[in-house]
Amino acid sequence: MQVENPLIIQSDKTLLLEVNNPLFEEARNLLGQFADLEKSPEYMHFYRISPLSLWNAASSKMTYEEIKDILYKYSKYDVPQNVLKNVKEQIGRYGKVKLIKEEVSDAGEESRKKQRLAITSEERTFIKEITNHKTILPLIEEKVGPNKFYIKENTRGFIKQALIKIGFPVEDLAGYEQGDSFQFSLREQTISGKNFTIRDYQKSSIDVFYLDGRIDGGSGVIVLPCGAGKTIVGIGVMEKIQAETLILVTNTLSIRQWHQEIIDKTTVQPDQIGEYSGERKEIKPITIATYNILTYRKKKGEDFSHFHLFTEKNWGLIIYDEVHLLPAPVFRMTSEIQAIRRLGLTATLIREDGLEEDVFSLIGPKKYDVPWKDLEKQSWIAKAECIEIRIPMNPGLRMKYATASDRDKFRIASENRAKLEVARSIIDQFPEANVLIIGQYIQQLERFARIFDYPLITGKIPTRDREKLYESFRQGDIKVLIVSKVANFSIDLPDANIAIQISGTFGSRQEEAQRLGRILRPKETGENKAYFFSLVTSDSVEERFAENRQRFLAEQGYNYAIYNEEDFSFPLEK
Known about the structure:
Layout: E1 7-9, E2 14-18, H1 24-31, E3 36-39, E4 44-48, H2 51-59, H3 64-74, H4 81-93, E5 97-106, E6 109-120, H5 124-131, E7 140-143, E8 148-151, H6 156-165, E9 170-172, H7 200-210, E10 219-223, H8 230-241, E11 245-249, H9 252-265, E12 273-276, E13 286-290, H10 291-294, H11 309-312, E14 317-321, H12 328-334, E15 341-346, H13 356-363, E16 366-369, H14 372-377, E17 383-391, H15 395-402, H16 406-414, H17 418-429, E18 435-438, H18 442-452, E19 456-457, H19 463-475, E20 480-483, E21 498-501, H20 509-517, E22 529-537, H21 541-549, H22 551-555, E23 560-564
Parallel strand pairs: 5-9, 10-15, 10-16, 11-13, 11-14, 12-13, 14-15, 17-22, 17-23, 18-20, 18-21, 19-20, 21-22
Antiparallel strand pairs: 1-2, 2-4, 3-4, 5-6, 6-8, 7-8
Helix pairs in contact: 2-4, 6-13, 7-8, 15-16
């Protein structure tokens, strides 16, 4: 019997995908290459085709014909022709406008050459529309015929930002400066004596980014799940480029982890790596800095004290770890350093502020993405079960909640004390597990730490003390660790196999993905499996925000089992 197709395509460019259809997983993996997941209730996932999703697809060499074939293959009904027309138009826009570098003679000095940047297109109407737009006019230096104009010096990033906002994604073919050479090689064995090889998917992402040094490579974003080795991808790109490198990370612990990985897996020597943070100010051939130090200034309105780091050395590569968190000031500086190769690393390109377009224009398009479930099947990341438990409020708290402001309602629901007993029952059921209790509100976390008598890590804890606690957790001396949002990113805790989320940052899909990532690293001992519990107050705004947080994980193929507290029982399959 022929399986009925799972996809309904609507004329407003929304796509409805039936979850319980046998072709669901196959179709989902393909749709994710050119459409964005918007919401994911139990039986139907809603996608939307957007200009940015199509430009990312085009940058990865996906064609209109391939997208059309996917839509026809899985569609339950006729494909609306206006949708196909829009896909063809937007896919066609990428690469139609190019940014190139030309050598030209100075007027009156034929022997002297200088380089100029030009915007070109074979579509004269594109150039005419662009050159008459009010946001583009200040960036134009000289119009050169109907198909080309030169842009002002040091506006390479600004023109790309401005053009994408008016619907013209630029293919940047102006190339890059090589930067100062820095030679090193990868080890075949790590310092600890383990064999070291770059995995197939990591090698593919490195090759797609580098493109043999061609001008159509060298800038873009690699998307891989937490635990899949994004740091190794960064190191692999560094080894390809062989130039001095600036690495930007979220916090000081991330600096130490990058430093450790580079020393462990390459021939780079410790004195060739600099730390640039609130604690140290070292500039070396490989320099690792925090976003916080780069955005530091003594007073509002003053210059950023440490932006000189971008131009201090002749960098050949800048790596943006957790690129989805890029602060606006770093965006602005990045717009001025477009002649340097730029690599963004992230588990999710979702930005809750909607600045994905700036990542596209200033860092580069998405170059490589792999479904989380594909890596799970190959055991490169742990298999994860996601479970949401909805917990009622007691009558006194319900009355307080009913009379509170909208913002206070979220906090009251998040700090519901009934969550404590549910968390305790989970921990009791997994006595051998390595558990992270993760939350947003410090008072709530302190209450949990006081009652449970487990160690707590927040932003107030000095870096050295945090490192000691994380190391004790890795060694098994601590079985349960309570952490605030400082542990959302770049913390390597490979043996953590249970996360209990007791509160979060409103409906942040990005945070949900990062928190699940804390337990996805493959387990060296026992079953390669992890559990992600999210405790949510029922019949509250927290329940609504929780639905939004799940969207990204649903796109990656994770099913959330949702229970009311009274219906949830142990034992689970362990």
